[in-house]
Structures are given as structure tokens and as C-alpha cells.
Amino acid sequence: MILLLFDIDKTLIDRSECHHRAFSHAFQEVFQVNTDIDIINYHGKTDPQITCEVLKKEGLDENLIKKKLDEFKEILSSYFILNVKDDHIMVLEGVRDLLTELESQGILLGLITGNLESIARAKLKQVDLDKYFKLGGFGSDNYHRPYLVSTALKRASRKYNFSPDNSPAFVIGDTPRDIKAGLENKTGTIGVSTGIYSPRELKDAGADFVLESLQYKKEFMGFIKSR
Ligand SMILES: [Mg+2]
Asked: What would the pLDDT profile of 16-28 be if each residue is shown by its tens digit?
């Protein structure tokens, strides 16, 4: 059995304006701060981590942020779910084709994303990709990305008898944070340079294999089967 854990933003899809707006809405609603996630580099970070970093940069006290974090997550998620139907999410080139092929070969597919699970699922449902992913590690599971990988691996073992010692698992993502999270959990790692990071930066982060996009299906399949 092969297990593949895919990041979402800039790996499977381009970006979600609605997710972006949901943050601004929740910052205002819960903390009365008029701000935007663009004030930090949020790539590869979890939703709770993005929330804390933005608010700290706006001068808010860490204890106050932590106290209201659950309420923030609820507002973030409910705004997103209410408004995602109007979002124009672009699926990146080759993604649908690759996922269909992987599924037809019986490869176990999961997610590894900083998005809260409710947001991740709604986002992928909007573009009809949710059906491919049987499990995952999400921003609602933990603040730190490496824990998301260990959570996903545990779920794969529990639900699908996946054994990381005998079977290959791979993390696929567009940022050095995805690659490091995979390495910390001893999975294989595939970088895709469809985000803000170059193939060189992903290689330097330790990626076993780097592709310019997931449209290189033959190369992708060749790599995961070679392990
Ligand atoms: Mg990403």
C-alpha cells in the first residue's frame, strides 16, 4: 500500500479568496482588528498559526489571542462555509487527472493541510476534489505542521491498516514547511513549485523529488513506484 498526503493551497488549488476574506472577517468580529493575512508570510502555516502571527504583529497580547482562539476558529469556519459557494477556486493543472489515476490504482490518498478540517473539506467539495481523500491531518488538529503528518499517519494505520514501517508514505507540498514536516516523520517528500517557492528552495529544504507542477503525471508515478 502506498499513502500520499497532499497539501491543498498552491498544491492542489491556486488560492481561495473566500478563505482570505474569512480571516479578515473573523479578525474584525472576534478581536475588532481591521487586518489581513497578507501582512505575514502565511505559506505553509496552519490556520491557528496564521491567526496568532497576524494578531501578534498587530500588537495583541498572546494570552488574549489564545483565550479567544476557539471562538475565532468557529467564526472563521462558519463564514467560510456560508460563503464558499461564491468562491472562484482554480484547480491547478493536471491535478484532477493525477488524482483520478492514483485512485484507480488503489493508492490511499490523504490531506496534510494547515486549513481547519471543516474549511479544507468545504473548499475541496466546492471543486469536487473532496471525494478522493479518505483521511488527513488538519490545522484543527494542531498548531504545528509536523504533528499534522503524524496525526494523518496514525489515522491511516487505524482506519486502513497502513504500516509506515513496511509501506511508503509521501508528503506532497509547495513549501519548505511541507517538506520539513514530512522529513520529521520520515516520509518521502515531493515538492511542487506551484507556490511562491522555487524548485531550488524545495530541494534545499530536503525534498526527495521536485516537480514544477502535478501535470507531470508520468514522472510523479515513476517516482512513487521507485520507492
Ligand atoms: Mg501550500
From this structure: 999 999 999 999 9
Q: Which fold has domain 17-86?
A: DNA polymerase; domain 1 (1.10.150)
CATH 1.10.150.240 domain range(s) in the chain: 17-86
CATH number of 3-14+91-226: 3.40.50.1000
The C-alpha atoms of residue 79 and residue 83 are separated, in whole angstroms, by: 6
How many whole angstroms from 67 Cα to the centroid of ligand 1?
27
Centre of ligand 1 to C-alpha 180, Å, is 13
Determine the distance separating the centroid of ligand 1 and the alpha carbon of 109, expressed in angstroms.
Answer: 17
CA of 94 to the centre of ligand 1 (A): 16
User: Helices then strands (H, E): number in the chain?
Assistant: 10, 6
Cell triple for 39: 501582512
Per-residue pLDDT of 67-78, as tens digits, reads 999 999 999 999
Q: Give 210 Cα–ligand 1 centroid separation in angstroms.
A: 14
